[in-house]
Amino acid sequence: VCDELKEMPSKSIKFGLVLAQKDYSPIIRHFGLQLLEHCIKYRWNDLTPEEKNRMKKSALELISTGTQGILVEEHHIKDAVSRITVEILKRDWPQLWATLLKDLEILSRLG
User: Fold this and answer.
1) CB within 10 Å: which end of the chain, N or C, has fewer?
2) Interior CA angle at 87 toward 82 and 91, to 5°?
3) Which CA distances in Å does 17 have to 14, 20, 22, 77?
4) 40-54 confidence digits (pLDDT tens)
5) Could you give the CA distance from residue 111 to residue 105 in angstroms, rounded to a whole number?
6) DSSP state of 11
């Protein structure tokens, strides 16, 4: 079932984002983040522009509010969130994500 889900990018995004929420256990969150990363790495070109924009927005939301405090959050969760952002960066920045640096600057001010 998990491998089948990876082959459906729209569902991978939907379920990945739900499972990655910080209310769940680290194991469930890690699986959700893996779904998102797999979708970005292997199915990015299959996504619609709207889905890609949703992923970009969601990546920034994961950075800003999707993790526990920096001293509390498990390392593998922080690592997975950063990998998701980097994978999107590799594919869309700077041409298709011109606001990234400004977005990250705003996030850095929020703490």
Assistant:
1) N
2) 145
3) 6, 5, 10, 13
4) 999 999 999 999 999
5) 10
6) H
> Phi/psi at 69 (nearest 5 deg)?
-55, 150
Domain encompassing residue 59: 2-110
Q: Which residue has the tokens 């800003």?
A: 64
- The answer, yes or no, to whether residue 31 has pLDDT greater than 90, is yes
Tokens of 82: 């950063």
The type of residue at 51 is E
Listed in sequence order, the DSSP H helices in 20-74 are 26-43, 49-65
- Give the number of residues written for the chain: 111
Q: Examine the pLDDT at 94 and tell me if it is beyond 80.
A: yes
The pair of structure tokens assigned to 79 is 């690592």
